[in-house]
Design brief:
The chain is of the alpha+beta class and 105 residues long. The chain has one domain: Ribosomal protein L7/L12, C-terminal domain/Adaptor protein ClpS (Ribosomal Protein L30, Chain: A, 2-Layer Sandwich). It has a three-stranded antiparallel beta sheet with strand order 2-1-3. α2 crosses α3 and α2 packs antiparallel against α4. The N and C termini lie far apart (51 Å). The mean pLDDT is 91. InterPro entries: ClpS (IPR022935), ClpS_core (IPR003769), Ribosomal_bL12_C/ClpS-like (IPR014719). Involved in the modulation of the specificity of the ClpAP-mediated ATP-dependent protein degradation. Binds to the N-terminal domain of the chaperone ClpA.
């Protein structure tokens, strides 16, 4: 191998597989005191749901005890939980919001 060949040799780079971050479901939990309109407002403001989607999720919360507001990476989910809980507290509503890991495939 000549000096010129050494200068033009190429390196083989290894590809490492990156895993997608674990996703978390943000759930709104039913209570007997938080107004349905407030739940819809929260879904529209913090989760950017359309009016009809927000109404359907609110009804799931009301009838099934919980509804999925969205699925996000952990840090985003935790931020949304904190924002909604803070807003609910400021308004005097006992709305509970939790983030839980999405089931693995």
């Amino acid at each position: 191998m000549t000096r010129r060949d050494e200068q033009h040799s190429t390196q083989t780079l290894e590809r490492t597989e990156t895993e997608r971050p674990r996703l978390f479901r943000v759930l709104l939990l039913n209570d007997d005191y938080t107004p349905m309109d407030f739940v819809v407002l929260v879904l529209r403001r913090y989760f950017r749901k359309a009016e009809q989607d927000a109404q359907l999720i609110m009804l799931a919360v009301h009838h099934k005890g919980q509804g999925v507001a969205g699925v996000y990476p952990r840090d985003v989910a935790e931020t949304k939980v904190a924002q909604v809980m803070g807003h609910a507290q400021r308004e005097g509503h006992p709305l509970r919001v939790v983030a839980e890991p999405e089931a693995s495939e």
